[in-house]
Specification:
Elements (H helix, E strand, L loop, with lengths): L4 H17 L3 H12 L6 H17 L1 E4 L7 H15 L16 E5 L3 E8 L5 E8 L1 E3 L5 E4 H4 L12 H11 L17 H20 L14 H14 L1 H7 L1 H11 L3 H6 L4
Parallel strand pairs: 1-2, 2-6
Antiparallel strand pairs: 3-4, 5-6
The protein binds zinc ion.
Zinc ion (ZN) binds next to helix 6 and helix 8.
Length: 269
Amino acid sequence: MNFHPIRRFRRWRRSRQLCQSRIPIELWERVEQDALEHFRLSHHELARLRELASLFLLKKAISAAEGFEVDDYMRVVIASQACLLILEIDQDLSLDWFDGWHEVIVYPDSFFVVQQQPDEIGLVHEQRILLGGEAWGTGPVILSWKDAQPGHHVHGKGSNVILHEFAHKLDMLNGVANGMPPLHRDMKREDWTRAMSESYEDLLHQVERHHRTRIDPYGAESPAEFFAVVTEEFFEWPERLYHYYPKVYHQLKLFYRQDTLKRMTGPHH
Ligand SMILES: [Zn+2]
């Protein structure tokens, strides 16, 4: 007999938690309209997303930086899009895919970080760079609300800073950010690597030759950034990703277990 007391207990606890802390329907509908409508999710997908986002808000603190104030609307906008990534891969609503970190910090606007960069002869220079989001290691996810708010595509159509930063978290679940999150058993490592590296090289060539790039050129920064950028494209503009990098689209479809192209171009539910 298939009897897992711990699993059953966890499921029971989650349903209790959901009863007590489901995101209120008026707030959820507002966020749905502002931030989720363009993803064209079905009623069933939206209901599941609301459950995941409610549990996300129980587990993670979303706090403000620099005297800014974060309200529940902002929290739900962030939680719902973060959870869109794991909608089909977190089958038991465990949020295990977002393990190992606890906090999201929201800045009102883009923020500066100091990066140390060694030059050719090994001297380390400090560089101040302006960011709309950051997510490294076991630390918090940092977001700029100006860049993350609904309808604001700071790097053009197809961009989404929330999806970008949480994709980094998935990537880092199995160690360093290298553009390869933990793959499912039915996926092949070689297929993933081939699809990603061919397309990454292609983007890199376009950037080096100062050509117009097919997708956001920021993806040419590193394989980790490439994964985060193609994740944004996969959810926001799958037609374009499929057109230019069909193998990448296919691998992301296997990884996220969502067919965003079909959802975006098919009949409305
Ligand atoms: Zn990034």
